[in-house]
User: What shape does this take?
Amino acid sequence: MTADRDTLTTSLAARELLAFYREAGVDALVGETPVDRLAAEAPVSPAPAVEIVRPQVPTAARAAPAQPTRPIFARDLESKGRGAVAPPSSDAAVMAAREAAKSAGTLEELRTILEHFEGCALRNTATRLVFADGSPGARLMFVGEAPGRDEDIQGLPFVGRSGQLLDRMITAIGLDRASVYIANIVPWRPPGNREPSAQESAICLPFIRRQIELVDPDVLVCLGKPSAQTLLEINDGLLKSRGRWYKFHTGTREIRATVTMHPAYLLRQPLQKRLAWRDFLAIKKALASA
Assistant: This one.
């Protein structure tokens, strides 16, 4: 009986853990096979010493400058296959993103460029590009951090539980989803809903900046600390930076920008909704005076 109870307890604990992972958005494994990292490692005998003979390199070969890595786009892979080309370095990818974003004259052109851009590895693990939603000529623009599982499936930003909360908050100030513009810093979902790395955000930054320039809103709202840090370059905590106004240069003019809580944060901390409501009332007032 004791063994049966232990087995039942273990089974229930496993189910609860899997349910927690599913709610957290974890749906991808890091490795193909499980690894028992707690198992004792077998002792490894030291390898015998091997004499290394270094080949002589001609002087002319040593003096030859290294060739820079050219950023890779989908069109480069059409005739070679994905495995034939090494991924670009992070610096090369950032430079390629800047040049590509600069060349976009419209939002549709920017979307097309992103669909073919190979400089961000997240593109290979995401289901689809999550570009934006709402009105391209909106006076109010929201920018989050990255898509989640629901957004990755539908190809639209903020469509899960946090998106439904955002919709209600927008409606509360007399607007709706069709009258605002919503996007993210990173347009591809990171595996397991993890936070985008600093390198991934840096690669995608030129695209979201160009997106803001093309929309040209009167008010820009950063949803959450990562969005504020990336776009406004502020390092203050969320509760300190929220509700304050900052200047943001769109490329053609200076607009007002602010920071408020990400809807996902509000779902975890519902008592903070009162502060978010104050932020949205301030946004409504700013739109009326712009």
Summary: Residues 57-72, 74-85 have pLDDT under 50 and may be disordered. Strands lie at 133-134, 140-144, 181-184, 219-223, 245-249, 254-260. The CA atoms of residues 205 and 248 lie 14 Å apart.
